Amino acid sequence: MxxxxxxxxxxxxxxxxxxxxxxxxxxxxHSLEEWGVGGRAFGNWVSWFLLGGTMYSAYTFVAVPALTYxxxxxxxxxxxxxxxTTPLAFVFTARIWSVAHRHGLLxxxxxxRARFGSPSLGALVALTGIVATMxxxxxxxxxxxxxxxxxxxxGEWPLLIAVVMVSLSTFRSGLRAPALLSIAKDILLAWVVLxxxxxxxxxxxxxxxxxxxxxxxxxxPSPNDGLILSDTGQLxxxxxxxxxxxxxxxxxHAVTGMLAAKDRAxxxxxxAASPIYCLVLGLMAxxxxxxLTEGIRPLxxxxxxxxxxxxxxxxPDWSAGIAYAALGVAALIPAAVMSISAANAFTRSIYRTxxxxxxxxxxxxxxxxxxxLVVKFGALxxxxxxxxxxxxxxxLIGGVIILQTIPAVFVGLATGWFDWRALVAxxxxxxxxxxxxxxxxxxxxxxxxxxxxxFGGSSMPVGDTGSxxxxxxxxxxxxxxxxxxxxxxxxxxxxxxGRDETTPDDYVADADDPMVKRLDExxxxxxxxxxxxxxxxxxxxxx
Amino acid sequence: MARRARASRIWYLxxxxxxxxxxxxPLYNRIEPTLWGxxxxxxxxxxxxxxxxxxxxxxxxxxxxxxHGWQ
Lengths: 543, 71
Hints:
Distance between the termini of chain B: 16 Å
Oligomer: heterodimer
Largest sheet of chain A: 2 strands, antiparallel
Shape of chain B: elongated
Number of helices of chain A: 24
Helix content of chain B: 55-70%
Number of helices of chain B: 4
Structural class of chain A: mainly alpha
Largest sheet of chain B: none
């Protein structure tokens, strides 16, 4: 029964993805702006669901409860991380939206290029983004695999079919496919959250759950788990939260959904309401404790299966099927958006910059389509060919390396003071420092036995204090130091700086600005008017 | 005009509490008081999310951009 519900819902979703190509179809789907950011015309509701669909992925809904299940309070870091992201996004995403609309930008790499006047910096940022995104797609597929395993569908073919289907629908519909799917996913997810709440209410209640979970953590030998953080665990917690917050502003896929919004007000309204997703995330994280006290055991020690296992044991059969489908779609949507973003980064910052400077919009869209396929199947290859734990390692490393683009991308939104040469040097030293530090981290199991000699986690010890600190933040510190010192030096030597193509005005422009492209009228079904000529000639595209 | 711009800037200070509150672990890293059985550590953070919704919405409403100004 659960399998039937799961498979038919998942099938229906994928058909919906195909149908998305016809949804709000513009006159010309063959441009990258249409394929890659849905014509920049999504209104309040679509933007809201797409935001949730991209940022709150299956990996979040599977891995976060798995973490609280395994270590308790530390696993809750995703909640403060999500909360802090919102006030910052409120300010910065509106700025990204404006500058991207004035200059026709799609990815962080293009922004770095326009801001600091250096194609090489842009390409480096794009490349870093692609490398960091690939394992992110892979862990989404791992989450999907965990669901398949619980359902009892084994082997590699179900995963392969799901990826082929979602790839084809993305290839055809672009960002419209994940946007439409996000709406359906959130309905399923709301169902899951409500039924989970109901199950908890009918059980012993939170007081009893935490009493028992506290008792369990007290019996484990590890000093780092528990209902609250250990005294030495706080630094690690705070730096992990801070690092994760910053990385949100650097991943190419994080901005894609918001760039598709039709105006600044849409962006701001959505972000103001987005902490609602944080509450849902917090609730899912709390379910990890519930699973612990209900005696749920992961399949083959794979913690990713804890949530699916819990649905199987505690939900009615058909309802569990709905829950699996919600998790499955929640894995496929971010995978689609991430592959689109990585593909756009390649097309705009590498293909058009170095390989074919004169590429037409139709050619750009074609290249991005094929590149998105490469990203998805590359991620699938990582999972099928390598150890799954290897994909998780890569994701860990991805988080650290994407942080190195923060000075160019995030700080760049506030100031254009840095020199592009210094930024390039900063990214490279930051990457090197991050990788060396990660390599040195061991994973120590029960009884002080070294389980893994290298890449054992992302928290490094601080001297002998017993405290730990998130590697990404340390590497970013090194990076920022290099950037600042080198920029000062270059200024002292009076080396001419790169040309900033943006003006302060660009960061506050709204949809009624004549310089902003007007594709929204046709797409939102408003009275058609001669948009094309107006948008194309007035839009100050970077040459 | 400049004063008005500054007055609207001050609203943005309301974004500081939801940014800082979830980072103050020494403040909320405790079990008591519990709410509906949830240790303080957890419900404090959920309340931070509610605080974020309220304050960001306030800032959004107070600083809405006027629909003209671009010549």
